[in-house]
């Protein structure tokens, strides 16, 4: 069991369509405070992929939609959780077949490859939380 030393949670939303760059920037602002930080390039990419999926496939992409972002930090470990606004038909998953030339469907494949571990949770309210963990 991991005991998290720090937990940061905030809602990121917009009057228009949610800007994924804003989600990434808010995560980065928290993580830049740590001088022995994580690979922000990888974290940026993973956050963008998950937030983009929320915008494309759930009510998070509708005007006024958003996501809840939670950062959990422990000694040498970071967990990022992004919860959408619900309303999607299916569950986040990695396609059975995705090639390097596909325009869609590779985001969670990248998450799987770059993260130490990752997963999805579906709440009773229909909202999905996609999470990943990275280590220093």
TrEMBL record:
Q: Where are the transmembrane segments?
A: none
Specify the Histidine kinase/HSP90-like ATPase domain's residue ranges.
19-118
Alphabetized UniProt keyword annotations: ATP-binding, Kinase, Nucleotide-binding, Serine/threonine-protein kinase, Transferase
Q: Which Pfam families does the protein's record reference?
A: HATPase_c_2 (PF13581)
Q: Which GO terms describe its molecular function?
A: ATP binding
Q: What is this protein called?
A: ATP-binding protein
Cross-referenced PANTHER family: ANTI-SIGMA-F FACTOR RSBW, ANTI-SIGMA-F FACTOR RSBW-RELATED
Q: Which organism is it from?
A: Actinomadura chokoriensis
